[in-house]
UniProtKB/TrEMBL annotation, chain A:
Gene3D superfamilies associated with the record: MetI-like
Species of origin: Devosia sediminis
Protein name: Sugar ABC transporter permease
Protein family: Belongs to the binding-protein-dependent transport system permease family.
Chain ranges of the ABC transmembrane type-1 domain: 101-313
Main subcellular location of this protein, as a coarse class: membrane
Taxonomic classification: Bacteria, Pseudomonadati, Pseudomonadota, Alphaproteobacteria, Hyphomicrobiales
SUPFAM superfamilies found in the cross-reference section: MetI-like
Membrane-spanning intervals of the chain: 31-49, 107-126, 138-160, 246-268, 292-316
InterPro entries for the chain: MetI-like (IPR000515), MetI-like_sf (IPR035906)
PANTHER family recorded: BLR7065 PROTEIN (PTHR43005), INTEGRAL MEMBRANE SUGAR TRANSPORT PROTEIN (PTHR43005:SF2)
Location(s), subcellular: Cell membrane
GO terms, biological process: transmembrane transport
Keywords: Cell membrane, Membrane, Transmembrane, Transmembrane helix, Transport
One GO term describing the cellular component: plasma membrane
TrEMBL record, chain B:
Major localization listed first in the record, in broad terms: membrane
Transmembrane segments: 14-35, 73-96, 108-129, 141-160, 193-210, 245-266
Protein name per its UniProtKB record: Carbohydrate ABC transporter permease
Keyword terms of this UniProt record: Cell membrane, Membrane, Transmembrane, Transmembrane helix, Transport
GO biological process, one term: transmembrane transport
Pfam family, one: BPD_transp_1
Organism of provenance: Devosia sediminis
Similarity comment: family membership: Belongs to the binding-protein-dependent transport system permease family.
Organism ancestry: Bacteria, Pseudomonadati, Pseudomonadota, Alphaproteobacteria, Hyphomicrobiales
Superkingdom field: Bacteria
Length: 326, 281
C-alpha cells in the first residue's frame, strides 16, 4: 500500500492527478490476485523449497520429519583413504546420473529436431488450399488428444516383438530381415521412445508453426510469384525467416517439455538403462530405492537445468508482454 | 509441350495427395489398430490383421465388470472436473487484474506464472509428497486435485489473460461510466463475453488433468483411488509374460473416445486456444 502511493505521487507532477477510480481498480486488482498467489505459493513455491531443502539432508522416505542437514553431501562428498587416495561419492560423480542426463539430452534434441522438420512439413500442407484439408487437421489432432499413457501402451503393442504389427509390416515391405524386440533391446529402446514421442507431439508443433505461417501476408508470395522466384527459394527466403519467431518459441517450448519426460518412458521401456531419463531416475530414487534425499538432489539439478532454459524461453518470447497495456 | 506440362502438374498433384494420405494414415493408424485389437479375443489377438476380422465385446465386458476400472473412470472424471472448476474460478479474477489493470510488477508476475507452467513437476514432487502426507490427503482424490493446481492454474490464468487483453476497452469504459465496480465488470460484463474462452481453456485444462500420470502414480496407492492413466499403466496379467493386451486396448479405447470426440467437436477453438497460450495440453 505504502509503495503504491509513493509510486503514484512520484508520477503526479508529469501526469494528471491519480483519480479515485484508478486507485479503486488497483485495490481490486490486488484483491483479485491474492487467491491465485496463495494457491501458487502453497502448491508450487513451498514444495519447491522443501524439495531443494531435502537435497541437503539425509531424509529417507520413512523418516521425513527426522531429516538432518548434511550440506552438499548428496551432490559431492569425498573421503581420504588410508593409502592417501581420495574417493569421491555423490550425484556429481554418479555414472547412473550422467547416463540419465545424456539420455535426456539425446532424447530431447533428437525428438525436437524431428518434430520441427516434420511439423513444418505438416504445417505447410495444412497451409495450402486443397480439398479435404479439414480431414487432415482433424486427423492430426488425434495423436495429440490421446493420453500419453494410452499411446505408450498402444505403441508397445504395435512394437511387440512377437505379435507386433510393425515387425510384420517391416518384414512384408522388406525393411526388416527379422523381428526386432523394439522396447526390450538396448539398441532400439531409444528409437522406440523417439518414434512414439514424435508421433504424439508433431501435431502440436505443426499447429504452432501453422499459426505463424498464417500470419505471413499473402501478397509477399504474389510479388515473389511475379518476379519468378522458385518455390524452394520462396520457402528459404520468405517463409522460413518470417516464421522463425513462431518456430523458435515452439522449439524451445517443446525442448523444455522433452527435458522433463517421464510417463512415456516409464510405461514404454521400464527398467531400460538405455532410455532412463533424469525424471525417471529421480522418481526411482525418491520412492522405489528409499534414497529420498538423493532423489531430491536429482530433481533439484533437473530444476536448475530447466529453469535456465525457461529464462531463455521467456527472454525470446517476451514480445508477448509488450503491447496490450490497458 | 502442353502434354508434358500437364504431366508435371499431375505428378505434383499425385505426390501432394500421397503426402496428405501418408500424414492421415500415420496419425490415425495406431488408434485404429487399438480399436481393432480391442474387439478381438482369445487366439485372434495374436493373429496380425490389418482389417477387422472378428468382433467380440469380451474385452470391454472384462474391463467394465472385473477389477476397479469403472471406479478409476469415476475418479478421473471427478478429479479433472473439480480441478478445472477450481482453476477457472481462481483464474478469472486474477486474469482480469493481470490484463486490464496497470500495476507495478505485472510483467514480472506474468513471467513467474509462465515459468511455473513450465516447471518440471519432478522438482516439486518430494515437497508435495511431504505436504500431502502432512495434510492427511494422501491416497485420496483431494491429493490429486490439490497437486494438479500447479499446472492447471498457471495455464488457465495465462490463456484467459491473453484473451481478456483483446476485449475492447470501450465496453469496460461504458460500464465504468455507469458506476460498475471491477467485480460487476467481471461478472456482468466480461463473463457473458468470455464463455467461448472459458470453455476452450477449461477443456484444455481438463485434458491436461485427465492425462496426468506422475502425480497420480505417486500420490495414490490403492486400486480404488487411482485414476485411469495409472490404472491402464499398471494393468497386467498374472505374470509379466501374460500381458492382457485385449483388456488394455479396450480400456484405452474407452478413455480415448470421449477425448477424441471432444477434440474433434471443439477443433477450431482448441487450435486457437493452443496457439494463444502456446502451452501443451
Amino acid at each position: 500500500m505504502a509503495t503504491e502511493t509513493l509510486g503514484a505521487t512520484a508520477v503526479v507532477p508529469k501526469r494528471k492527478i491519480v483519480s479515485e477510480l484508478t486507485q479503486q481498480r488497483a485495490r481490486a486488482a490486488r484483491l483479485f490476485l491474492i487467491p491465485m498467489l496463495i494457491a501458487l505459493a502453497i502448491v508450487a513455491g513451498w514444495p519447491l523449497l522443501r524439495s531443494i531443502y531435502f537435497s541437503f539432508t539425509d531424509a529417507s522416505l520413512t523418516n521425513l520429519a527426522g531429516a538432518e542437514w548434511i550440506g552438499f553431501g548428496n551432490y559431492l562428498r569425498w573421503q581420504v583413504l588410508d593409502s592417501g587416495a581420495v574417493r569421491y561419492r555423490g550425484l556429481l560423480v554418479d555414472p547412473n546420473w550422467w547416463n540419465a542426463v545424456w539420455n535426456t539430452v539425446r532424447f530431447a534434441f533428437t525428438s525436437v529436431a524431428f518434430e520441427a522438420v516434420l511439423g513444418m512439413i505438416v504445417a505447410l500442407v495444412l497451409n495450402a488450399e486443397f480439398k479435404g484439408r479439414g480431414i487432415v487437421r482433424a486427423a492430426i489432432l488425434i495423436p495429440w488428444a490421446i493420453p500419453t499413457i494410452v499411446s505408450a501402451r498402444m505403441w508397445s503393442w504395435m512394437l511387440n516383438d512377437q505379435f507386433g504389427i510393425l515387425n510384420d509390416l517391416g518384414m512384408r515391405l522388406g525393411l526388416l530381415s527379422q523381428k526386432v524386440a523394439w522396447t526390450a533391446s538396448a539398441d532400439t529402446a531409444m528409437t522406440a521412445v523417439l518414434i512414439v514421442d514424435i508421433w504424439k507431439t508433431t501435431p502440436f508443433m505443426a499447429l504452432l508453426i501453422l499459426a505463424g505461417l498464417q500470419m505471413i501476408p499473402k501478397d509477399i508470395y504474389e510479388a515473389a510469384e511475379i518476379d519468378g522466384v522458385h518455390p524452394v527459394k520462396q520457402f528459404f527466403k520468405i517463409t522460413l525467416p518470417l516464421v522463425r519467431p513462431a518456430l523458435m518459441v515452439a522449439i524451445i517450448f517443446r525442448l523444455l517439455d522433452a527435458l522433463r519426460i517421464f510417463d512415456l518412458i516409464y510405461v514404454l521401456t521400464p527398467n531400460s538403462a538405455a532410455t532412463k531419463t533424469m525424471s525417471v531416475l529421480a522418481r526411482e530414487n525418491l520412492f522405489d530405492f528409499d534414497k529420498f534425499a538423493y532423489g531430491s538432489a536429482m530433481s533439484t539439478l533437473l530444476f536448475l537445468i530447466i529453469a535456465l532454459l525457461t529464462i531463455l524461453y521467456i527472454w525470446l518470447g517476451r514480445v508477448r508482454f509488450d503491447g496490450g497495456d490497458r | 509441350m502442353t502434354a508434358s506440362f500437364d504431366l508435371w502438374k499431375f505428378t505434383k498433384w499425385v505426390l501432394f495427395y500421397l503426402l496428405v494420405a501418408f500424414i492421415v494414415v500415420v496419425s490415425v493408424f495406431p488408434f485404429y489398430y487399438a480399436v481393432l485389437t480391442s474387439f478381438k479375443s482369445g487366439t485372434a489377438l495374436f493373429q496380425i490383421n490389418y482389417w477387422p476380422t472378428s468382433f467380440s465385446l469380451n474385452n470391454y465386458w472384462n474391463v467394465l465388470n472385473t477389477g476397479s476400472f469403472p471406479r478409476n473412470l469415476l475418479n478421473s472424471i471427478f478429479v479433472s472436473s473439480v480441478t478445472v472448476l477450481l482453476a477457472l474460478f481462481i483464474a478469472i479474477t486474477a486474469s482480469f487484474a493481470l490484463s486490464r489493470v496497470r500495476f507495478r510488477g505485472r510483467g514480472l508476475l506474468l513471467m513467474t506464472i509462465l515459468g511455473i507452467s513450465m516447471f518440471p513437476q519432478m522438482a516439486v514432487l518430494a515437497g508435495l509428497f511431504e505436504l500431502i502426507r502432512f495434510m492427511g490427503i494422501y491416497n485420496t482424490p483431494w491429493a490429486l486435485i490439490f497437486s494438479y493446481t500447479i499446472f492447471t492454474l498457471p495455464f488457465t490464468v495465462w490463456v484467459l489473460t491473453t484473451f481478456m487483453r483483446d476485449l475492447p476497452v470501450e465496453i469496460e469504459e461504458a460500464a465504468i461510466v455507469d458506476g460498475a465496480t471491477p467485480w460487476v465488470i467481471i461478472t456482468r460484463v466480461f463473463m457473458p463475453l468470455m464463455w467461448p474462452a472459458l470453455v476452450t481453456t477449461g477443456l484444455l485444462a481438463f485434458i491436461g488433468a485427465w492425462n496426468e500420470f506422475l502425480f497420480a502414480l505417486t500420490f495414490t496407492s490403492s486400486n480404488d483411488t487411482r485414476t485411469v492413466p495409472v490404472a491402464i499403466a499398471l494393468l497386467s496379467g498374472s505374470t509379466q509374460y501374460e500381458i492382457p493386451w485385449g483388456n488394455i486396448m479396450a480400456a484405452s479405447v474407452i478413455v480415448t473416445v470421449p477425448l477424441v470426440i471432444l477434440v474433434l467437436v471443439f477443433q477450431r477453438k482448441i487450435v486457437s486456444g493452443l496457439t494463444a497460450g502456446g502451452v501443451k495440453g
